Amino acid sequence: MDIRGVQIDDTFAEAFGMRGARIIITAKNQRWAREAANKMTGFATSVIACKCEAAIERELAPDQTPDGRPGICVLLFTMDSDSLPKRVIERIGQTVLTCPTAACFDGLPDAAERIAIGKPLRTFGDGFQGSKVIDGVRYWRLPVMQGEFLIQETFGKARGVGGGNFLILAESADAALDAAEAAVDAMAGMPGVILPFPGGIVSSGSKIGSKRYKTMIASTNDAFAPTLRAISNTSLPAGVNSVLEIVLDGLDFRSIAMAMQKGIDAACRPGVHSITAGNYGGKLGPFHFYLRKIMGGNVDDAPSEGAPV
Amino acid sequence: MSDRVTLTLRAPLTRAIGADCITADRFSGLSEQEIGALTLWDGHVAVPLGDVFSIHGDHSSSVTIEGDLAHLDYVGTAMRGGEIAIMGSVGRGVGGRMSGGAIRVALSAGDDAGIAMAGGLLAIDGNAGDRAGGALQGASKGMTGGEIIVRGSVGRDAAARMRRGTLFCASAGENAGTAMIAGNIIVTGALGDGAGLGNKRGSIHALGGVRVPSTYAYACTYRPPHVRLMLLSLRARYGLAIDDAHVHGLYARYSGDLADIGKGEILEWQAT
After folding, report:
1. Residue A66: its chain B contacts at CB < 8 A?
2. CATH number of A19-158
3. Contact A135/B226, CB-based, under 8 Å?
């Protein structure tokens, strides 16, 4: 299969189960909502070292938010159920509670599983906090120096999918970056999906473990590193001088598959040799995103077995 | 089984009739004959419901009551679910101690509407009398949950000893929120004197001004984030005419009642 002269490899991206929360941050204006969201999603590229993966999902207009103010949707994922509330609490506590005019709401109101977020954070109010139940939902009011901080008591917890990916193999670093930027732009704002790496792009994709250092849980993906072509077991075709990776986390298989479809299509542009994906032979995760199926229009090929952890 | 049970008054009522047997959840399990055999009270005299109302429908938790019902008291007492539509005015005690479901009154309600209410919705398109959402005599708590939406005015002592829930109205008489424990009162227009006396943790939102009791102290003027949320929610769910100026506006916060624990508040909207 090729799209506008770019080969789509006959392979799949292998992804695994995660737990996720959607956090809606509102503020006086979009600037301050984004400030809080940027801080909240900082240092959250990979669970390998950041303990969670998080990014901005999309902007919300005032008529899309609970309090009628401009907002930002953030998705945050962890590998297990127990650590999700810990990561959400510490990040909201340090980055949203501290942001001028910000308030914080659950973006998964229909989720049956709930995690207490506002409830533990309320203690910052040192006994001066109060709560309000509005339309059956409890919110905490924390008195702060600016006025009051409002946060929902519980947030929904969803089973998500982490590690969707595709690799852009290009003739030059500039061509790879142009294609990756086009892919990110095409996927921006798609519901249920985030791209947790800087600008949505990974320049240093990793393999599991290390050949030389036993303590490393991940190390450079030498098979796709152009400078190692001559001395490693390379996977790079001739003419490829730079590779960039797009990593996607999402609330479900279909959201990621749809985003991959859009992103890959946008990445198929001059200077790109081929699109491939990272997998571990199907041993790591139950979610397999077959590139040719997705680009053929099949975005519903969810795994038949292997529920996310 | 019917979609709806309709009760139509056979003849105008000339004096108060107790109708605490009319609850939507109870009707869902009853045939037309069984509904007709329920007991209304004319003073101390028991009267079969079927003698006062003609009945159409059975086994439904949706109930419509038609006629001049201003003398029909205690409709929906302790109701736990379903819905009652009252196509006119209704007497005292409508929705008292109800814990679920919805009661909608097309015109006005008498005294004690939603008294000691614990949940559900009581929506009154006209006015309500005294003690709306208030407490039963001698009870330590008044309303403990649910919402009372009155598009017109409420009388004296509204939401007295309220523990949880929300009372919304266009205007309120004297002593609204007396000895409130918690919960919300929202008044878009005139609010009588003595609001919030003895308030512990309750919130009184005075969108049309208020004479703040001397046992409250001014704290600051700000935009309370929960007010935005609450007013938008009420406007969206009930189609209430709430101005954007109230939603996004500034409010003066008064803490009180300082003669009690003082964790309550009166939030007075500030015209700018």
Report:
1. 229, 232-233
2. 3.30.70.520
3. no
- Residue of chain B nearest A141, judged by CA positions: B226
Residue (of B51, B8, B59, B12) closest to B32 by Cα position = B59
Q: How far apart are CA A190 and CA A202, in angstroms?
A: 19
Domain boundaries defined on chain A: 2-15+160-295, 19-158
Give the gap in angstroms from C-alpha A81 to the nearest C-alpha of chain B: 30
CB B74 within 8 A of CB B53: no
Question: What is the per-residue pLDDT for A302?
Answer: 60
- What ipTM was assigned to the predicted interfaces of this complex? 0.93
Tokens of A204: 């240093």
CATH of domain A2-15+160-295: 3.30.70.520
B233-247: per-residue pLDDT in tens? 999 999 999 999 999
Which of A67, A135, A150 is opposite residue B237, by nearest beta carbon?
A135
User: Which residues have CB under 8 Å from B45's CB, separation 6+?
Assistant: none
Q: Where do the domains of chain B lie?
A: 1-77, 108-270
Count of Cβ atoms closer than 10 Å to residue A188 Cβ: 17
What does DSSP say about strands B144-154 and B164-172: parallel, antiparallel, or unpaired? Answer: parallel
Find, among A13, A10, A11, A95, the residue nearest to A52 by Cα: A95
- Per DSSP, the three-state class of A12 is strand
| Alpha carbon distance A180, B106 (integer Å) | 61
Task: Read off the pLDDT band of A298 (50, 70, 90).
Answer: confident
Please give the span between the terminal C-alpha atoms of chain A, in angstroms, as a whole number: 34
